[in-house]
Amino acid sequence: MEEYFQEIGRGGRDGLPSPATLYYNSHDLSKRRKEMSNVMRNYVTSTSVCRREMILKYFGYILDGCTLLPIHKCCDYHKDICYCEDCSVEIVSEVDLALRDIVLANTTLSDCQEVDLIQLRDELTSYWLNLHYGRSCIGSTCFSSGYSIELIEQVCSSFDVVNSFDDVMTMMPVFTKNNAIVIWEVLKKYK
User: Fold this and answer.
1) d(CA 66, CA 2)
2) Where are the domains of the chain?
């Protein structure tokens, strides 16, 4: 816990709020069982306790409820239970995205010939393969660039409904404008 606390503290040294994201999976937990303390294991897996409170309690401080307003800025636990105006807008956006995904899933590719679809997929995959280069690239291509096989499949399955660069930006889960530009340039060849 001390090491984690030290790492997340680096983000707030300028006095400004900064998010901390902890990535883990069950393999990490089981692989490092001997190295990981129960306190850290509970911190990672807990979904019903304020993470800020857990850290402060570990160091001997007692927190009497969340003092941050709005509370969703505290941690993921408080974000899940917050119903302020900002969170309500986010929930509506998530519902809109889910409905859009349902519409996209039911869209047929009748206007796109099978050969074009294969070529489109191949060209997008080729770009994806060229993203991972050098020793300086950390993690997977998807993690470092946001460009994934799932994104390629979504672009291909949405071929008929994506008709502009703006459509790529609004309808596809693109990580960077650069990726959106490449996707649109490739799509234009098959329109």
Assistant:
1) 22
2) 1-81, 108-190
